[in-house]
Amino acid sequence: MPELPEVEVVRRGLERWVTGRTVGDVEVLHPRAVRRHFAGGVDFAARLAGARFGTAMRRGKYLWVPLNDASSSLLGHLGMSGQLLVQPQDTPDEKHLRIRIRFDDSLGTELRFVDQRTFGGLSLHECAADSMDGLPDAIAHIARDPLDPAFDDAAFHTALRLRRTTIKRALLDQSLISGVGNIYADEALWRTKLHYDRPTATLTRPTSAELLGHVRDVMTAALDQGGTSFDSLYVNVNGESGYFDRSLDAYGREGEPCHRCGTPMRRRPWMNRSSYFCPRCQRPPRTAS
Ligand SMILES: [Zn+2]
After folding, report:
1. Mean pLDDT within 64-86
2. d(Cα 159, Cα 34) in Å, to the nearest integer?
3. Which residues surround ligand 1, an ion (CB under 5 A)?
């Protein structure tokens, strides 16, 4: 599944390749890809035609492109396997091409939404009231992500202290902090020596600050590694991307020695996913939930 750094790479690609372009015609090739556009595919295509793309924005794993005067936006979510590709018009259609957006210019490229599993999609939304950047109303409840300059560290710490939850659940709670997926949560918890079931009410301010710092470091490192793939015609994200494999300390390392203490790493089922941790560096809380 694409995580925040991959989505940011896609955002940068969109910023570079489609900003300022005006939509010509739109083809919806699979209804599931526009299921979040409640008025349906015909309405989606009709409303998007003629719109001028602003600069792509991102909040967590959601992308949007403000349209015209930013009174509405094109919202995209990549789901499990979605890709946004800027392709030459004569490139053969991808097998799982779901939406094609042509532009009313002579640049010779078009925007394609390709999605094998169709958990992702595109939709059009009004912008949230008081939004300065065209934030779609449909995602106004999504918290800012930790790489957002406007993310409020103090408010995050206060929210952690007030919630009756555990730290990994909190990291994946999009209303608290967005864009932290399973991989980044495990990596940041390992770096902070925190067990995933640690109650958030027990976290001190220095510990939550250290954790946020590690979340940012892990994401920034991933962005740096993935940051070259958009420097081409492709605005591409591959859900099975291996950008980070060589630098992971926790995720996927069951049975391998902890990079800090050598103890074999463990994996535990966790909310239909897995948590990877070092049983020595990341001690379970005495009153694990
Ligand atoms: Zn260890």
Report:
1. 90
2. 34
3. 258, 260-261, 263, 278, 280-281
